[in-house]
Amino acid sequence: MRLLKWLSVFATLGMLLVLLGGALVTKTDSGMGCGNSWPLCHGEWIPSEIDVALIIELSHRLVSGGVGLLVLSLSVIAWVKVGHIREVKFLSFLAFFFLLTQGLIGAAAVKWGQSDFVLALHFGISLVSFAAVLLLMLIIFEIDRKFDAHSLLIRKPFRLQIYSLTTYTLIVVYTGALVRHTYSSMACLDWPLCRNASPFDFSLYGSAQWIQMGHRAAAAGVFIWTGFLMMKALKDYKNSPIMKKGWILAASLMVAQVLVGAFVIMTYVHLGLALLHALVISLFVGLLSYFLLLSSRSAKYERSVK
């Protein structure tokens, strides 16, 4: 079990690197750093001409490939060793399948090109894989101390809120990725509003403003919804440290996400802040996935006592 625990930790950290690496490739416009050649760089095993874009793109490919092997190993070993645990087989499949899918989308984009709307799916697909790996890690560390469904029962109305918020958050993540891939990050130089002489401009530049403001409005929905669920958790689950601390952390991450997003605009898309923006939303989605796991167990327990 010790090997499996360490493997799960490294795979989870590796997935975070994959997410940040993908964001770095997009933010620095390095997607074609190796030309339209994949998996080689400009058709060469060892590129003869090296620049920054090539280093970023090739590093991302190498990290993704190495992490892919880690995730595959974790999925297979977890399936064999702890596959009797209810969620393990599904999460094992989910983790590797979505990581493979995002890799294929990336390869297709390099070889044949893809629309911005398809490329925007890339980050969200990687997030699903990250969430699955994170949950596998938590389950593996949980084995020594079994989860007791009686200790935390998330009631159905709150579970439905968690399911809905998670779905909505993934949609918002997609709009954020669309902002990056359509180069709309600086379409509005003001924050939080977009003061523009032609607010209903539907030209090429005007559409970028709509994409940017659409993402901000959608993100505001996640911020408000998370705050509401935090208040509800503090009121309805006073005796549950997991619910209280978890939703305080969720709200804190969302506050950080909004502030970092504002600073990204104010600093004209500072690269470090842009990567921090991607990291915070990844952690937020990971936390939501944990609440999904707890909700699933609560639902199973409710069905068993009926």
From TrEMBL:
Q: Which reaction does it catalyse?
A: Fe(II)-heme o + 2 A + H2O = Fe(II)-heme a + 2 AH2
Q: Where in the cell is it found?
A: Cell membrane; Membrane
The protein's assembly and partners: Interacts with CtaB.
Q: Which family does it belong to?
A: Belongs to the COX15/CtaA family. Type 1 subfamily.
Protein name, per record: Heme A synthase
- Under which pathway is this protein filed? Porphyrin-containing compound metabolism; heme A biosynthesis; heme A from heme O: step 1/1
Q: Which InterPro entries match?
A: COX15/CtaA_fam, COX15/CtaA_HemeA_synthase, HemeA_Synthase_type1
Quote the record's binding site residues for heme: 215, 277
Required cofactor(s): heme b
Q: Give the primary localization class.
A: membrane
Cellular component annotations (GO), alphabetically ordered: plasma membrane
Q: Per the record's keyword annotation, is Transmembrane helix included, yes or no?
A: yes
Keyword Lyase tagged: no
* A Pfam family hit: COX15-CtaA
The task this protein performs is described as: Catalyzes the conversion of heme O to heme A by two successive hydroxylations of the methyl group at C8. The first hydroxylation forms heme I, the second hydroxylation results in an unstable dihydroxymethyl group, which spontaneously dehydrates, resulting in the formyl group of heme A.
> EC number(s)?
1.17.99.9
Question: One GO BP annotation here?
Answer: heme A biosynthetic process
Q: Name one GO molecular function term.
A: heme A synthase activity
Transmembrane segments annotated in the record for this chain: 62-80, 92-113, 119-141, 162-183, 213-234, 246-269, 275-294
| Principal EC category | oxidoreductase
Which keywords does the record carry? Answer: Cell membrane, Disulfide bond, Heme biosynthesis, Iron, Membrane, Metal-binding, Oxidoreductase, Transmembrane, Transmembrane helix
* PANTHER family found in the cross-reference section: HEME A SYNTHASE
* Membrane topology designation: Multi-pass membrane protein
